[in-house]
Amino acid sequence: MAGIYIHIPFCKTRCIYCDFYSTTRSELKSRYIHALCKELQMRKEYLRGEPVETIYFGGGTPSQLAEEDFREVFETIRKYYGMEHCREITLEANPDDLTEAYAAMLQNLPFNRISMGIQTFDDSTLKLLNRRHNAAQAVNAVKHCRHAGFNNISIDLIYGLPGETDERWKRDLQQAVSLNVEHISAYHLTYEEGTRIYELLQAHRIREVDEESSVCFFSTLIDTLGSAGYEHYEISNFCRSDMYSRHNTSYWKGIPYLGCGPSAHSFNTDTREWNVASLEKYIRAIENNQRLFEQEHLDRTTCYNECIMTSIRTRWGVPLNDIEQKFGKELWQYCIDMARPHLDCGNLEIYDNNRLCLSRKGIFVSDGIISDLMFVEE
Ligand code: SF4
């Protein structure tokens, strides 16, 4: 099985915390869609004929596209990869784009999952972040998707935002729970160099939340969503029974995926590739039958480290039997030895005599555990 990621790099405006590759140059949209379809065709061998199980339109803002743009992309995927094994087809969307008419239009397309960047229900914070929607629009967007017939809706939240209090975060979570969506992702704000919010922080115009509050927010997140019936299946992800994101889970389980569009990453177990992060350069190259990308060949140690890094974050944990089979007895033994102190102090647990998982206590110190389990050549 395999996945396809389609990057749609257009945003009407830029949010101040964002470091994803996107542009406000919407006049390039139709040239871009042609180039994207051409890239899909050029790389039809990348997945080596593996059946495509998931497709994910991410961004940027994929909900900036019109019905005919999506049709062109889907026709290309169907022609070169086939869609008969697709189980999950996600559109990442901005709440302000999800009008009643747009949500209804999406139902005419193969999408069966909507992922919405709500971030917070606090209007003044949404304004500060330069998001284009307000809380009421977010609530309505979920209603419109439901009304259109979508029964797999995910929302993204950000916590640890400037001025965040325990009370405000609890309010956000209560609002999220009341929407009764199938999936919730919640990430702590990070201040990435080069973003506007990073500049505001450097200029002391906003303050970062302290470490103790961050831990408290994370704890509130796990408890609130847990008591509302959501399963905590990955450090930042929660779902109603079995409604986990199949596409993102494939990244964590080392399943091959093809990423098309500027800045998109691809992985086929031997190599990792990433396209140039420039819309203009990307289009020009593809129009000249070329691709601008970098590539990394993955050796055994890199694959082991990636497997640890991604699988330990999930409820399925590190599959110890697979570690032995794929990476050999030595790395398996290394993993067991490095896990031992964390097993002894209750940060890690083993299930089914095979799966090495973070305990509730371990989730709070996962970064340290991951770096202990990773193999560093001397
Ligand atoms: S809409 Fe998404 S991709 Fe675009 S600037 Fe905002 S956070 Fe970044």
From TrEMBL:
PROSITE patterns: RADICAL_SAM. GO terms for biological process: porphyrin-containing compound biosynthetic process. The keyword Manganese does not apply. Residues 1-231 form the Radical SAM core domain. CDD domains: Radical_SAM. Pfam families: HemN_C (PF06969), Radical_SAM (PF04055). It comes from the Bacteria. SMART domains: Elp3. GO terms for cellular component: cytoplasm. InterPro entries: Coproporphyrinogen-III_oxidase, Elp3/MiaA/NifB-like_rSAM, HemN_C, HemW-like, rSAM, rSAM_horseshoe, rSAM_sf. Keywords: 4Fe-4S, Chaperone, Cytoplasm, Heme, Iron, Iron-sulfur, Metal-binding, Oxidoreductase, S-adenosyl-L-methionine. Gene3D superfamilies: tm_1862 like domain (3.80.30.20). SUPFAM superfamilies: Radical SAM enzymes (SSF102114). GO terms for molecular function: 4 iron, 4 sulfur cluster binding; coproporphyrinogen oxidase activity; metal ion binding. It is found in: Cytoplasm. Probably acts as a heme chaperone, transferring heme to an unknown acceptor. Binds one molecule of heme per monomer, possibly covalently. Binds 1 [4Fe-4S] cluster. The cluster is coordinated with 3 cysteines and an exchangeable S-adenosyl-L-methionine. Belongs to the anaerobic coproporphyrinogen-III oxidase family. HemW subfamily. This is Heme chaperone HemW.
